[in-house]
């Protein structure tokens, strides 16, 4: 029997699936995070971060196999990139998230690229995608369409204007709020979340469209308190930080404590402390106690 897409199963039932972005593209870092058992999904970013396709294939299989199917390997792919969709799915991803979707036609194209005929145009030539689902190839080809997650990100003015038509597209499993780019599209400072009235109105519009289409809603968060707030608001597909955030935040806190560097106003992953380092770490002579450095 084909291994279920655990994340898709959860969000279809209205239950939370919290996961993380993989920016480091390290098989070893991925193994360590998978072994912790905290995530329901892990996403390899094909859109923003250059990723070697062979490495991506190793990461996808590591996630699926080491977790026994409990953690879903996903990929974010550029809108309109049929080749990226097929590459990710044939390499072992169990779903794709497509950003910058502006119209129902673009959403329909993403669904077609992710589905085998007759529902789509995905070819049956991949040699190994079925391995992530724990079945033989004929069974995978017969049953994979219902287990492949297709999500669309709403983060442009056009996407927002067409969100009801986009959410209603048959085969779209998830409507995802892209908070950083949505802020910028609304001519606001880019943030993971804010209380700006225009941003909140846009989010409300996206949530309303998703509810009308009976589709779950997703969003990205930086920290746990944000994730708790979004879950309480009805988001079920929630991304919290990334593998890079995990590594750099821990390092920042520990070395910040050691060298007396105060907590940054945002995550350590987005902070550069070179201007706050002790002089001894910059190869400069230490200033005498009480010196301002302006003498």
Describe the largest sheet. 8 strands, parallel, barrel
Strand order of the largest sheet: 1-2-3-4-5-6-7-8
Tell the overall outline.
globular
The amount of beta strand, in percent, is 5-15%
* Chain-averaged pLDDT: 90
Straight-line N-to-C gap = 76 Å
The CATH homology group name of the largest domain? Phosphoenolpyruvate-binding domains
- Give the assembly state of these chains: single chain
CATH class descriptor of the largest domain: Alpha Beta
Category from helices, strands and their pairing:
alpha/beta
Q: What features would you describe in this structure?
A:
The protein is α/β, with parallel strands linked by helices. It folds into 2 domains: 238 residues, Alpha-Beta Barrel (TIM Barrel); 30 residues, no CATH class. Helix content is 40%, strand content 14%. An 8-stranded parallel β-barrel has the order 1-2-3-4-5-6-7-8, surrounded by 7 helices. Strand 7, helix 11 and strand 8 form a beta-alpha-beta unit. Helix 4 packs parallel to helix 5. The longest helix has 17 residues. The model has no long low-confidence stretch (mean pLDDT 90).
Keywords:
295 residues; alpha/beta; TIM Barrel; 2 domains; 8-stranded parallel β-barrel; 40% helix; 14% strand; globular
Topology record:
Layout: H1 6-12, E1 17-22, H2 27-36, E2 41-45, H3 53-66, E3 72-76, H4 82-90, E4 95-98, H5 104-114, H6 137-143, E5 149-154, H7 157-161, H8 163-167, E6 174-177, H9 179-185, H10 197-212, E7 217-221, H11 224-232, E8 237-242, H12 243-259
């Amino acid at each position: 029997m084909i291994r279920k897409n655990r994340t898709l199963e959860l969000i279809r039932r209205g239950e939370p699936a919290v996961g993380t972005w993989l920016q480091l593209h390290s098989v070893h870092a991925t193994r360590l995070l998978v072994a912790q058992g905290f995530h329901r999904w892990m996403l390899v970013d094909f859109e923003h971060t250059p990723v070697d396709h062979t490495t991506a294939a190793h990461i996808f299989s590591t996630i699926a196999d080491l977790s026994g199917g409990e953690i879903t390997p996903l990929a974010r792919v550029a809108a309109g990139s049929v080749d990226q969709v097929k590459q990710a799915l044939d390499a072992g991803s169990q779903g794709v998230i497509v950003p910058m979707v502006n119209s129902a036609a673009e959403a329909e194209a993403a669904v077609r690229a992710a589905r085998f005929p007759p529902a789509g145009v995905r070819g049956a030539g991949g040699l190994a995608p079925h391995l992530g689902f724990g079945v033989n190839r004929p069974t995978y080809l017969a049953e994979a369409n219902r287990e492949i997650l297709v999500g669309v990100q709403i983060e442009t003015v056009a996407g927002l204007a067409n969100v009801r038509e986009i959410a209603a597209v048959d085969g779209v499993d998830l409507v995802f709020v892209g908070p950083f780019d949505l802020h910028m599209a609304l001519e606001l400072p880019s943030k993971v979340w804010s209380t700006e009235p225009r941003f909140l109105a846009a989010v409300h519009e996206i949530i309303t469209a998703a509810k009308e289409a009976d589709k779950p809603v997703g969003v990205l968060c930086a920290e746990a308190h944000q994730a708790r707030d979004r879950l309480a608001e009805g988001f079920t597909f929630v991304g919290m930080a990334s593998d890079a955030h995990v590594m750099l935040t821990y390092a920042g806190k520990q070395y910040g404590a050691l060298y007396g560097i105060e907590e940054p106003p945002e995550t350590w992953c987005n902070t550069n402390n070179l201007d706050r380092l002790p002089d001894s770490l910059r190869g400069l002579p230490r200033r005498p106690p009480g010196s301002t450095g302006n003498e």
